[in-house]
């Protein structure tokens, strides 16, 4: 067994490392090389890891330079890893960690990796590959998406033969090739860290706590993103603040002709993002579109000019007037001729209102309007007052983005 230790010229400036851990000394980057995909029939011949010490990042490699060294390098690595708190890797949850676990069980070694927080870059971004616009989340694909064009002389599979040849005829050239490939994979994870910006962004949107926004309120809340609060306006309440991960910067109406030549109207929103994204992304769902680039995103949402219905909950307290096609409370409708009124049902207990409407998928904005009682699509009225509320438009941007992300 050989243990190689060297300082490497790597940096975490591309991504704030404190989001991973309060101290870089707690983090251990991991990548292994094996003679096959199955731990039952294959061996680990090289374990590479990066760690922070004395103000710089270091690379440590545990290399099985002779047959039968596998147990030694696994033991040595586990002993080294026991003092760390966070394990960083790419697809390690499915390959590296189970592989090491199998070997620990075989050699009766306590697997301390179970006690470390496992951060799998692959797992964090794989659910969003459609939004990233990539066909898969292989390491090379993600690297190209981030603008990293790393040249691999050998693939992991090709190196298996190189290693087997090395065991028979050891020489410096094969030795250097084996170590260099693993070292490049470990170094490459530092370049992959900015991919976590996408995970952070999507998670902030999807985990936004539920906020009910009353559009008919006399005053609206202010919006806060991070530590910044908008300057109050006449219709905003400085004592009511909602925290959102993004902020609407500009909202405007846009007219266009659809594929059939029919004029349509939409809302264009430009929102600021909490981070600068390395590469542009985008997605769509139910006629809504977004594209994010750098520190901002543009969102397009259909705007409907229509007459929709507001349904009252307590329909037993209402009469329905067929000739008027609306419901009135019994305290008023009792004066209407009995031949012109009937007991309202849940489906007929409504009032109609023409206006401009935006779609929503939960009752975030109230009052809620629908086309018919049984419809699952919900709407809210976009009033001039609401258009001027940065809090309302920011919350709606979060709502739309969350819907698109969930359906990606």
Amount of helix: 25-40%
Content of β-strand: 35-45%
Low-confidence stretches: 227-235
Mean pLDDT: 93
Order of strands across the widest beta sheet?
A: 1-4-3-2-5-6
What would you report as the Rg, rounded to the nearest angstrom?
30 Å
Helix segment tally: 11
Order of helices and strands: EEEEHEHEHHHHHHEEEEEEEEEHEEEEHH
Global morphology? elongated
Distance between the termini: 47 Å
Main beta sheet strand tally, sense and closure: 6 strands, mixed
| Count of extended strands | 19
User: What is the SS-derived class?
Assistant: alpha+beta
Q: Nutshell version of this structure?
A:
The chain is α+β, with helices and mostly antiparallel strands.
Task: Give an account of the 3D structure.
By secondary structure, this protein is of the alpha+beta class. Helices cover 27% and strands 35% of the residues. The chain contains eleven helices and 19 strands. The strands form five sheets. Strands 1-4-3-2-5-6 form a six-stranded mixed β-sheet, with helices on both faces. A five-stranded antiparallel β-sheet has the order 11-12-13-17-19. Strands 9-8-10 form a three-stranded mixed β-sheet, with helices on one face. Helix 6 runs antiparallel to helix 7. It is elongated and about 105 Å long. The chain starts with a strand and ends with a helix. Mean pLDDT is 93; it is low at 227-235.
């Amino acid at each position: 067994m050989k243990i190689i230790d060297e300082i490497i010229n790597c940096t975490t400036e591309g991504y704030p490392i404190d989001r991973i851990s309060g101290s870089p000394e707690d983090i251990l980057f991991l990548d292994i090389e094996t003679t096959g995909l199955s731990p039952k029939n294959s061996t680990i011949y090289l374990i590479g890891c990066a760690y922070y010490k004395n103000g710089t990042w270091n690379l440590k490699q545990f290399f099985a330079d002779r047959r039968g060294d596998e147990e030694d390098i696994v033991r040595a690595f586990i002993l080294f890893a026991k003092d760390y708190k966070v394990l960083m890797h790419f697809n390690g949850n499915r390959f590296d960690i189970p592989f090491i676990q199998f070997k620990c069980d075989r050699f009766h070694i306590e697997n301390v990796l179970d006690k470390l927080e496992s951060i799998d870059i692959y797992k964090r971004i794989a659910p969003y590959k459609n939004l990233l616009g990539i066909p898969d989340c292989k390491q090379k694909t993600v690297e190209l998406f981030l603008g990293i064009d790393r040249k691999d002389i050998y693939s992991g599979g090709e190196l298996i033969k190189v290693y087997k040849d090395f065991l028979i005829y050891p020489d410096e050239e094969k030795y250097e090739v084996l170590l260099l490939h693993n070292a490049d994979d470990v170094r490459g994870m530092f370049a992959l860290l900015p991919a976590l910006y996408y995970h952070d962004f999507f998670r902030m949107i999807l985990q936004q706590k539920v906020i009910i926004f009353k559009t008919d309120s006399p005053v609206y809340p202010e919006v806060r993103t991070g530590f910044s609060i908008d300057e109050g306006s006449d219709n905003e309440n400085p004592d009511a603040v909602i925290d959102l991960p993004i902020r609407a910067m500009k909202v405007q109406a846009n007219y266009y002709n659809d594929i059939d030549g029919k004029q349509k109207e939409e809302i264009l929103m430009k929102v600021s993002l909490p981070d600068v994204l390395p590469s542009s992304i985008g997605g769509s769902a139910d006629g809504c579109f977004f594209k994010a680039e750098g520190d901002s995103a543009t969102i397009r949402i259909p705007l409907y000019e229509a007459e929709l219905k507001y349904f009252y909950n307590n329909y037993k307290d209402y009469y329905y007037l067929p000739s008027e096609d609306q419901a009135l409370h019994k305290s008023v409708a009792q004066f209407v001729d009995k031949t012109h009124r009937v007991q309202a049902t849940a489906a007929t207990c409504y009032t109609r209102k023409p206006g401009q409407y935006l779609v929503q998928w939960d009752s975030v904005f109230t009052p809620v309007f629908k086309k018919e009682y049984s419809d699952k699509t919900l709407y809210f009225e976009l009033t001039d007052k609401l258009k001027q509320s940065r809090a309302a438009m920011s919350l709606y941007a979060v709502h739309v983005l969350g819907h698109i992300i969930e359906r990606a």
